[in-house]
Design brief:
The chain has about 550 residues and is α+β, with helices and mostly antiparallel strands. It is built from 16 helices and 20 strands. A hairpin with a 2-residue loop joins β7 and β8.
């Protein structure tokens, strides 16, 4: 994933069981004999799956969404030029073919015959419109930098260029030509990311709030479309019969309830009311993990994502690098994993997960649970800040409402107290409120997850290139760090490029705008008889692949 990409995620607004019952959720989905449009199918039963998300999606405009909850919905009601499959391979989506120039800077996409849910043809101009809309600085897209590989994109987004100079051009209704600043090995994969999804230009220009309700204005082009949206309670998606590959979409209806508490989700799964638990929807309750392990239903898979604590470097205490270092080194990550998260995660001792090619080895930035190093850094930081006693350091740990995030925060709170003598307060907020706190700098230390937007180290480093980056949120920036990232972008020799990225990571791990906690594993449980409900390496689940026996 906050690019917040691909951000990792989650939480909001408890939903009462009466509300869920009224929405028709729960029970054995195979017993429902109605089709997605409410009519009887001849000789067949409609197929449903029941899922849960933690909260109301913060934003369902592809150009504005920055979180994984919103992405879980968007990637199933819209489709980009490509779809990244469960193995991480870009497969044909709205583009039925493409070609890449010899210098690897020009991509020409040929669009297939496809329709929007209102019957309009999906045209290349819809992609040009959507991408340039997100780049327009007036629209404040937090993920605008995801387009920066494109020629002129950064200049336009930062106010120094024009939309016409951006290398995105619909040559005709079926041809989209994209020109890059430099060869970008992961660009094709990028075109499957949520911010690269198309928007129906005619609808969006006629109604700027087209994405606010599940009505005739919310026009989509993916495998599913909105049937119902009860804000803060539920979403119902139904199969889009006008989707180009509808004949291969097996599930007719997707019922998505909004359930804040992981424990409630686990109970509903065990009771047959839900068919799946796992990101990017809801997460597996920490207290249920042992039981799911015991009965063999828990799936654990390494993934390219990280759980970290961000430091607000504009805060008086957190502006000190030694204080940030002390807080980072004092955490016993392996103990946290063994006793709290229990998901076979790996201690994070750097910013780039070990699953990313070229970064498989520990880079040796610091040791896990380095208490002596933490105490030495604390002493140095207190001297620099003219603080006499660790008790005078007050830390506020912010997180979005979740039993899991709360348990992690409580563990770290105790670590800092016992090892450093620092007191801290816990501050939890509902998901949308929490995102706003990070965005405005209304925090000291805040948790966040990050799932790779594409499988490359750059996705974990790029967000900290400047303090203005919408996914940074720490206020930290470093000119040498930014220069190394710029060099990596222009470098065609892969070994040199990796070296630039590793040098940049080393700078960040010296100044520590973030404290890496652990590299995620993906934990999930799925009802027997449901197949292909798998997350791809960039954190998405494409429900179009799901099959029900």
């Amino acid at each position: 994933m906050n690019k917040n990409k691909k951000f990792l995620l989650l939480t909001v607004l408890a939903v009462f069981s009466l509300v869920l019952a009224a929405c028709g959720f729960g029970g054995d989905s195979s017993d429902n004999s109605s089709s997605s449009d409410g009519k009887k199918d001849s000789g067949s039963k409609a197929k449903e799956i029941n899922l849960a998300i933690t909260s109301e999606p913060p934003n369902l405009h592809p150009g504005l969404a920055s979180d994984t909850t919103s992405s879980a919905i968007l990637t199933n009601v819209f489709e980009g030029l490509v779809v990244v499959d469960t193995e991480g391979n870009p497969t044909k989506g709205m583009a039925e073919d493409w070609s890449i120039s010899d210098d690897k800077k020009t991509y020409t996409f040929k669009l297939r015959d496809a329709k929007w849910s209102n019957g309009d043809a999906v045209v290349a101009g819809d992609f040009e419109y959507a991408w340039k809309w997100a780049l327009n600085p007036e629209n404040l897209s937090q993920y605008a930098s995801i387009f920066y590989p494109i020629k002129g994109a950064q200049a336009y987004n930062e106010g120094g260029g024009s939309a016409d100079a951006v290398g995105i051009k619909a040559e005709d209704d079926k041809t989209l030509v994209v020109t890059l600043e430099n060869p970008t090995p992961y660009f094709l994969e990028l075109t499957g990311f949520k911010t690269y999804l198309p928007v129906n230009q005619k609808v969006a220009e006629a109604n700027t709030e087209w994405y606010a309700e599940a009505d005739e204005n919310f026009v989509t082009n993916g495998a599913y479309k909105f049937s119902d949206w009860k804000h803060s309670a539920s979403i119902v998606l139904t199969k889009n019969e006008d989707y180009w590959d509808a004949s291969n979409v097996d599930v007719d209806t997707v019922n998505i309830s909004m359930v804040e508490k992981e424990a409630t989700v686990a109970t509903k799964f065990k009771g047959g009311e839900l068919d799946f638990i796992g990101a990017p929807f809801q997460t597996v309750d920490l207290n249920a993990i042992d039981g799911f392990k015991k009965d063999g239903s828990l799936k654990i898979k390494d993934e390219a994502s990280i759980y970290w604590y961000k430091f607000n470097t504009k805060d008086k205490i957190m502006s000190n690098a030694n204080i940030r270092k002390a807080l980072t080194l004092a955490i016993d990550r392996q103990k946290l994993i063994d006793n709290v998260t229990k998901g076979e995660q790996k201690p994070a001792l750097g910013m780039v997960p070990l699953t990313v090619p070229g970064f498989e080895e520990d880079r040796g930035f610091f040791k896990d649970n380095d208490v002596d190093g933490a105490k030495a850094a604390l002493e140095a930081g207190m001297k620099e800040l003219n603080i006499k006693d660790p008790k005078d350091i007050k830390v506020n740990i912010s997180y979005n409402t979740s039993e899991g995030h709360a348990a992690i925060a409580q563990f770290i709170q105790e670590e800092w107290s016992k090892k450093l003598g620092i007191s801290s307060q816990l501050d939890n907020s509902e998901w949308q409120v929490y995102l706003e706190k990070l965005k405005t700098g209304d925090y000291q230390v805040g948790r966040m997850g990050w799932v790779a937007d594409y499988i490359d180290a750059y996705t974990f480093l790029e967000m900290y290139d400047t303090a203005k980056n919408g996914n940074n949120q720490t206020g930290w920036e470093n000119a040498q760090y930014k220069d190394l990232l710029n060099k990596s972008v222009a470098e065609v020799d892969e070994a040199k490029r990796l070296d630039y990225l590793k040098q940049a990571e080393a700078i960040a791990m010296t100044e520590l705008p973030v404290a890496p906690i652990y590299y995620y594993t993906h934990l999930s449980v799925v009802k027997e008889g449901i197949e292909n409900l798998d997350r791809n390496p960039t954190g998405d689940i494409h429900l179009k692949y799901v099959k029900i026996k």
